[in-house]
Amino acid sequence: MISLPTSAEENTDLSKIHIDRDTEVKKALDAIVKQKHNVLVHGEKGVGKTHLAKIIYSILTKNANVFASFISVPELRSYYPSEPNKAFPRAVLLHLCIDIWKTIFKKDILDMQSKKTMLGKFKVFENRRKRKLREIYRFLMSDQVFDQYSFSSSGGIKQIAEASLSESAAISSTKAGVLPFEFSEYAEILANDIVSHYNKDRIIVFFDNANNMPSNDQQEILEVYLSLFLERNIQIVFIGGKLPWESFSFVSDGFQTQIKLLGFSDCELTRKFIDKMMPEGYTLRIRLYDELHYHYSGHPRKIQNCLIKALVYCEKYSVSKISNKIMKMAIEETDFEYKVMDDIFKREGHTK
What we know:
Elements: H1 8-11, H2 22-34, E1 39-42, H3 49-61, E2 66-72, H4 84-103, H5 109-112, H6 115-119, H7 128-150, H8 156-162, H9 167-174, H10 180-197, E3 202-208, H11 215-231, E4 234-240, H12 249-254, E5 257-260, H13 267-277, E6 283-284, H14 286-295, H15 300-316, E7 321-322, H16 324-347
Parallel strand pairs: 1-4, 1-5, 2-3, 3-4, 6-7
Helix pairs in contact: 2-3, 4-7, 4-10, 4-11, 7-8, 7-9, 7-10, 10-11, 13-14, 13-15, 15-16
């Protein structure tokens, strides 16, 4: 049995797989650190946007002057199932609270989530900034409790009571969700009081897989919060797939730097990429490297998916060399899968 790679990261060190991405990494870091820009990273799904973002994020976490946080956009829906737009400000603030608590204060998340925090019973001599962070977290979590209650047909009051919160307090403080002006005030405290005190001059938030949010929701959120972020020393790095952003006039204004990520630029880079993923003992005819590169325009995920299928055929036929015939079958199967996915996206009115 061969060990089939399910992702490039499984077979390679994260810092070494960004073949031909040094230019994009340098451009992004210059925009984020030196120019203090909001940055949009976009391109086809599977072209390596998330991987690039993680490399940049990893570098920024070692930068003493900034505080970086990484958020996966699809997770936002769990904070407010009915309205993603309401989920955004609360989810972002909660995520930042927890990241700051763990990274700056070196505390366990369970300490932040303790019953004393939810009851507002803080230590008398606790660090003032720790206390502020707990207070913000407490308010945001009471909002979360109310939201869970509002979607429950029974047992809602009990849930709130068990969390040591009163129903009236939850409803009065959270019915409207986190409003933009509240978000602005909390962001001000996080960035310009708590984080800045520890020599971090700003917060940088990465939003990954943004294309999983409907385009109209993205537009509404960014129109409201881009300017608020920048005013509070918080920058956005927005990572999305191939979306019709050209029709949104706000994008060019809100993102001072835009980076379009493409496939590998030449065959040699594709060869290096394939060699890093190829299991030991398996080989590929030299000309098939070029065939894969040109057929998929250097697109990393499509090349990877096709290679995995070719390796499965090798195992099926008990051979260790990927032949022309095996590669042809793998390409046909891969192309068919992508065609089916494209047809589904078109029917559902989505983009890649």
